[in-house]
Amino acid sequence: MPLTAAPTLARLLAKVIDAAIVCLIAAAIAAVIWLVGGPQVLGPNVFPWLPVVCILGSVFGFVGYTIYAEYHFGRTIGKKLMGIRVVRESGTRISLGQALLRQLPFFAQFFFIDALFVLFTEKGQRAFELITKTRAVVAMLGLVLLT
């Protein structure tokens, strides 16, 4: 069965959905910490650092969630909603190492350069998808499929 590259817009929307989910969870955790602990328990100097902790939690949570979900399920919630699956070039499940390397551009701050490769490669792959020999492809079943 041939692998069909996932549409770029669907991939982008999947990332936005996943980022929104992780940010909401991080914000909810920060709110609960603030409401339960409050300035009386945590001290007044904690409040200015809460947004920083929330942002860092979102970044690391997003990458960690993506690695976990792509390795164990082949997709994140956003990818599932967009009808996308991450596979090896052979169509089989990706390894943990591949899942980790696919997310390296987020930590190294060159994700947009990595993502530009999608527009210029034959199979619509990011630079780190070429390196890891993985692909984001159209899944057989999904709630939404943008073509």
List key phrases describing it:
about 150 residues; mainly alpha; 7 helices; elongated
Number of domain modules: 1
Low-confidence stretches: 142-147
The amount of helix comes to: 55-70%
How big a fraction of the residues is strand?
Answer: 5-15%
Number of helices: 7
Task: Tell me the number of strands.
Answer: 2
Mean pLDDT: 86
**Helix vs. strand class:** mainly alpha
The radius of gyration is 18 Å
Q: N- to C-terminal separation?
A: 19 Å
- Biggest sheet, strands in spatial order? 1-2
Describe the global form.
elongated
Q: Largest sheet at a glance?
A: 2 strands, antiparallel
Order of helices and strands: HHHEHHHHE
Describe the model:
- By secondary structure, this protein is mainly alpha-helical.
- It has one domain.
- The protein contains seven helices and two strands; from the N terminus they run αααβααααβ.
- The protein has helices at residues 8-42, 50-73, 77-82, 96-102, 104-108, 111-120, 127-132, and strands at 84-88, 134-138.
- Strands 1-2 form a two-stranded antiparallel sheet.
- The two termini are 19 Å apart.
- The model is unreliable at 142-147 (pLDDT under 50).
